[in-house]
Every structure is written in C-alpha cells, then in structure tokens.
Fold each of these.
Amino acid sequence: MSETLSIDIDEKTFGGLRDRIAAYSGVYLDASRRRSLSRQLWRRILQKGLDSWPDYISLLDSAAGEGEMNALLEEVVNNETSFFRNPRHFRALAEIVLPEMDRARPPHEPLRLWSAGCSTGQEAYSIAITVAELFGLPLRRPVQILATDISRRALSQAQAGRYTAKQMQRVELPYRSLYFQTQGEESQVKPELRQLVHFQELNLVQTPFPPRFHNVDVIFCRNVTIYFQLETCRRLMANLYRSLNPGGHLFIGFSETLWQIFDAFERIQASGTFFYRKGPASRPLTSRPLQTRPQPHSVPGGSSVERPLLLGESAGTAPPEPAPARPGLPSAPPEHDPAREHYRRGMDKLRQGHYEQALQAFRTALREEPNLVEAYCGLAQAYANQGQNAAAMQACERALELDDLAEEAYLLRGLIHRQLGQTELAIADLERATYLNPGSPTGHFYLGDALLALPDREGALRAFRRTWRTLLGQPEHAIIDGVPVYLLRQACRKYMDSLTDGLSRA
Ligand SMILES: C[S@@+](CC[C@H](N)C(=O)[O-])C[C@H]1O[C@@H](n2cnc3c(N)ncnc32)[C@H](O)[C@@H]1O
C-alpha cells in the first residue's frame, strides 16, 4: 500500500474536496469530518484500483467525474430515516392538509405530493399510507406521490420497498398487515401501495427542477438541508416555493429552520407541530407568521455575561399566550413509576454536579421507558455540562423526534448551538423554546444573549425586558434552571441599561 493512502488527507485537499462535494450536492462537510472523509476516500480509491489522492482527484476531473462524485457522495451522505418520522407531521397531513385540499379541488384533479430527499423510501411510503388511510385503496380520488433523492443506492432500496424488522418498528401493527407482506425477518410494501409512489433520481441543488416537479401541493423536504450552507438552503427553499401551488404546504425537519433564510412562507402551527404554507391560502388555519427582524447593529460591551450552567426544570410562570397542546403526553407522573424515579434521581445528581451518576440514572430511566422525553433532556444536560456537545445534541434530537414540542430540548439545543458559535440556529431554537414556554425567564434571557451576538440590539432588548417581566414576583434566592434569580436580574439589568443607553445614543 502506498504511503499516501495510510494518512489522513491534508487540510488543503480536504478543503478542495469539501467544496466540490458542496458544489455538487449542497452537503458541506465541516472540519470534524476530515478523518472520516479520508477513510471514505480511501475506500473509493481502493475500489477504483488507484493508489494516491492525486490520482483520485484526476479521476474526479475526468469525463467519469460526475459518476464518481455520485459514488463518493454515497459514502458521505447521511441516509438516516424511518417510517412516520416526526409523527405529528403525518397527523397534520391527515387531519388538515389532505382534507383541506380534497375539499378545495375538483374530484378528478390529482393531488400532488413530493418527498424530496426520500432516502430509502420510508418517508414516501408513510405519506402513501396516510393517503391510503384517508382515501382508501384503490384511491377514491387521484393522488400522485413523487419521491426523489440524489443517492442511487438509497433509491434502489426505496423502489424495492423491503425493510428489516428493526426498520419496521415504527409501523403500527394494523398498518403492517394492511400495507406490507412479511416473510421471516423482512417486510415488503405491497404492490398496490408501492405503485402510488414514483421514485426518481433528482439532485435538489441542480435547478431548474424538471416540469414534473412543478405544481406540487405538498413537499416533505425533511432533514436534507442539515448539512447545507445558508446560501444553498436559501436557494433550495426558493425553488421549492416556486414548485408549490398557491396554498401548498412544506414540511421541513425539526432541526431545520427557515428563520432568516426564507420568509415567503407562512408558518402554521397545528396538530401539535409546525409546518409552512405558500399563500394565498384557501382557508385560514391557526398561524404564526414569521417575524421580521430589525437590521443588525453593533453591540456596546458585547455579550460578555458568563452563561450559567443550565440545570433543573423550567420555571414556568403564567404564560401570556397559550402554548400549543401536547397531546399524548402524561400530565402528572404516576406515584410508583420506576422510570420517573430514576429520572428524578438523575435530576438530583445533575443539580449536585455528579454528571456521571446523572447519566447513569437517565440511561436506566430510558431502559425502563425508552420514550421518556424528559430523560433524553436530562441526558442532554448532563452531557452538555461535561462539554460533550455532540452527545448532548444527539439526546436533544432524540427528545425532539419523540416530541417536537419539547420546549426544554429546544432550549438545550439552542444553548449548544450558541456554544458552537451557530448563532442563527441557536436563535431559531430559543425562539421556539420561548414560544412554547413564554413564562421561562431563562429562555428569554438566553435568546437575548444570542440576539446580542447577532447583533440585534432591539431584539435583544425586547428579550431581556421579557426576562425581567417573567422574573417579577420570584424570590431573590429561588433557583431557575440552575441559576439564582438575583443573578439573572443583575445580568438582565446590566444588559437593559447598556442597550437602552446605546439605542438612545444611536
Ligand atoms: C437524513 S436523510 C432524510 C430522509 C427523509 N427525508 C427523512 O427525513 O427521514 C437525507 C437525504 O437527503 C439526500 N440528499 C442530500 N443532498 C441531496 C441533494 N442535493 N439532492 C437530493 N437529495 C439529497 C440524502 O441522499 C439523504 O437520503
């Protein structure tokens, strides 16, 4: 084996490849991926019978370059998916979006849905099951479901529609017998459901989209843009917007945001989740339009208040506006519930600063009850307090996957983004957290801190004023999310004074 193969690629080569991959697919690999990209490249080099990085780069430059780029992408792209991922999206589709379109459209006119970035097909088949549940099989009205991905490997699995028992875990039992044929460990989507979905290779960053993808009514483009850079994301959202019919709907992943990226959509909050609509709508739903933000200004003094550790549960004084309902979540824990007892023990350990013991307690709670959202939030806090941001982030994502209205998980993820210098993502999460729990002083405080870093002084001042209001009546030495009230007040006062001075001078 040649020497060049046994070492990681150097920074310059990594930068060049990263930019090529991003230009081709939108997927932008950050510096932490250098090692794994080296291994993935190595695999490609061996498969191609080459023996050096430069040979491989020449191959990418050759006529066969595009095919090779696609093959390389298969190695680096994240294909993670599951049936009914973020179940509330499918509930919104079944309860609101499809019935509304069905009423608004002549019965012979097809409704057109698109799973953009469908990976191995679970999202597209979940859409198909939702459609079949509503309109019967054969369908009582025409519906077309398009499903696209850049990955050929993922698409061929999607077309086959074969899934392992593990992949089938999130498919409810009645659906398994209605829509799948199971043989041993493997289940295959029945042909009558499979034929509702039309799979096609499509690179979402190469535009314009072919005419088949115009005049669409619903787009699911979830968890595709996570690794895209802002500008690529903005372009994609503008193109998806163009593809939608007026009144059409867009669903994006719970980790993704359109905030400060694309504001033409109206944000809808319904069925316990968020999604987006292209106006003009046929009929108004409960909606929260995107806020427009003031122009950024420079910040006097910067955002220098030390960020306290986040521990414990949110304070939750009386909210000024109702937060969305969280159907299906138990309101009060039962008396003798081992999972919750472990969870409470974990929280005690967390407050005492015994993070390893806290982690153990939360893991035990999750063994007892694998879907205990609070325990994932506990894990996230314990990891974050140990500086293990990646693990903390993963725990937040899991919590949000189980409950996309889990305010605490947004708060935590916002703080982690903030620590990683991802200010815009932090703001999007902290805004969600304060929307879901407007009575949380720490939510408003951290939002103010992140807005300062943007910098958006007016927005920050508003957030600190809200923090101040939510602290009214709280005893000085009470602890909220691990922070004494008097400290929050002091920090808030300092910020409000300096921002008011700065703004009145401006
Ligand atoms: C994490 S999976 C998400 C799958 C599914 N939408 C879900 O939420 O479960 C992301 C998918 O986006 C696809 N993808 C990434 N960049 C793409 C691009 N430029 N064009 C089309 N698909 C892309 C990947 O191949 C991958 O299958």
Note: Residues 25-27, 77-81, 85, 117-119, 123, 149-151, 154, 203-205, 222-224, 253 surround S-adenosylmethionine (CB under 6 Å).
Amino acid sequence: MSGRLVVSSPKNLGSERRVAAETALRLYGLSSVELELEEDPAKSYINTLRGQVEALRLVETLSKDTEPHVLRLHVTGLDIYFNDYYFCFGLAFKNAAVVSIFRLRDSQLGKFLSRLRKEVGHEIGHLLGLKHCTNPRCVMFFSNSILDTDFKGEEPCPKCRLQLARSGER
Ligand SMILES: [Zn+2]
Ligand SMILES: [Zn+2]
C-alpha cells in the first residue's frame, strides 16, 4: 500500500507514538515518519466550558497543515469530544486523525496498549477510506464505550480487508 504517514505526539507520549507507528505498519503496511512536538496542538482547541478538546477543529487544522497526499495521525493525552458526544476516543477528517489516550488508560499496561492499537487501527482505517463496520469484533466497529473497544479485535474483518484491497486497486 502506498502513501506516507506522519505520526505526531507531544514529547511525553513517545512510546504511544511508537506503538501507533508500529500499528500502522503491521495492520496496513504503512511506514511512517514520527514527529515529536514541543507543544500538543490539541491544547489550542480546548473548550473551556467542557475542559475537553474539540476534536473536529483539531483534525481540520491538522488536515490543512498536512500535504494532501500525506496522512497524519496525532496522539494526544487530552480528553477529546465530537458533536453531541460526551467524549470520543478518536476522530478522522480527510487525511488527518487524532487518537486520545485519556480514556484508554488502565492499571494493566497490556490492556492499555491493546486499546491504543485498536483506536489507532480504527482511525487509520478511516484515513484509508474505511467506514464503520457492523461486526463488533472488527477494528472498524464504532466504540461507544471502552467496553466496545475491549470487545473488538485489533484487526479489520475480512469484509473491511476486501474493501481496502479494492480501493488500493483504483
Ligand atoms: Zn470511527
Ligand atoms: Zn469490518
């Protein structure tokens, strides 16, 4: 699969950024360039009434700041939301996406990392053109809660795989 991916995060999320880059390569064959940022750009989009980041405004900006043929994934430690949802784990818009680790944390590191791989795999799936999938075990299933994330697998289901293969042929 072609296309270049830039995976960014603030300094303190270096290991999470690495996990995201590894996930992109393992799941989709996408190699990436890692970008360590001094400041988390998500900070600029905090809705002070909610104390959460407006994810859509953030990804719109990331998309504008990224060349059209390049994909961008940002990992933030801040809590994010979208529209009327109380929160979201991630959001994709055009060629840019964000994943928040805020609600993925767990006392078990393995569980946290698995959640991170799932949310990263989900958002990159969107960047590659995949929509939500009705299979609750598929990584493209929409997570309404962390229970959905824990239930789903880390990989796209055969149907989503087929769709990716088809869009790659175009
Ligand atoms: Zn989604
Ligand atoms: Zn699927």
Note: The longest helix spans residues 109-127.
